[in-house]
Amino acid sequence: MDTKRILLTISYDGTAYSGWQFQENGPSIQDEVEKALKKALGTFIRITGASRTDAGVHAQGQRAHFDTDSSIPPDKYPFVLNRYLPPDIRITKGEQVDADFHARFRAAGKLYTYRIHNAPHPSAIFRNISAHVPVHLDEKIMHEAGQQILGTHDFAAFAAAGGSAKTTVRTIDHLSVKREGTEVIIRVHGNAFLYNMVRIIAGTLIGIGQGKLQPECLEKALTSLNRLDLGVTAPACGLELTRVEYDFDQEQWWT
Asked: What is the pLDDT of residues 210-228, one digit of tens each?
């Protein structure tokens, strides 16, 4: 049989996992999907993800590819694999792509969402998918401050230690901060992101919204390239990888 390259779209609650990538010290999303593939196809298959989300980070639109000679139609993989996956991981789409396609290196853009429960007391329901901030946030100031980092810049100050990126230049083309009741939602879209970049942006915007940081600190950090000019790294639980996009995707990121 001919080998086919299959692209999966994956949704998960990352609370119980050590991250996307296989880890010796705890369960990972990658490991669970690979175990499901082995049960379904009878052989071990390595999958390659588009983004290495950290422990506790969630996803609506993670993407990952693998090669197989199975006769299963690409669009049937969600039905096949979800039978073997835990309820906090779901395959939402399967499609065939070109043999030279790469889920990580062919990504044209990514959309992240960061959720904040902004109320005096933590939420019993949303505690695993949002960060709790008890002090009232000024979402309008946060939004205005965030516009400083739009465009192509050296985001070296926005990266945590331990990243492996060859360059720290990235392009951010959308950043918004909106309030829906007690929830403050940060959305960031760009061509690629550095290690912990979105959580550092979120943590800094939270500091600005609390009045602990000056709004100009974001612009200053783009010039100084100094991590100390920014705020703390926001908790992982509030972060969601909402979309990973490729040139052939028909839907736009804002739909």
From this structure: 999 999 999 999 999 999 9
- Burial environment of residue 13 by CB neighbours within 10 A (0 to 12, 13 to 18, 19 or more): buried
54 included as an active-site residue: yes
d(C-alpha 37, C-alpha 41), whole Å: 6
CB 19 within 8 A of CB 52: yes
The candidate with the shortest Cα–Cα distance to 205, out of 253, 182, 238, 240, is 238
End-to-end CA distance of the chain: 38
- H/E segment holding residue 38: helix 29-41
Contact 31, 49 (CB under 8 A): no
Active-site choice (2, 13, 54, 100): 54
Q: Is the pLDDT of residue 255 over 50?
A: no
Tell me how far apart the alpha carbons of residues 49 and 32 are, in angstroms, rounded to a whole number.
13
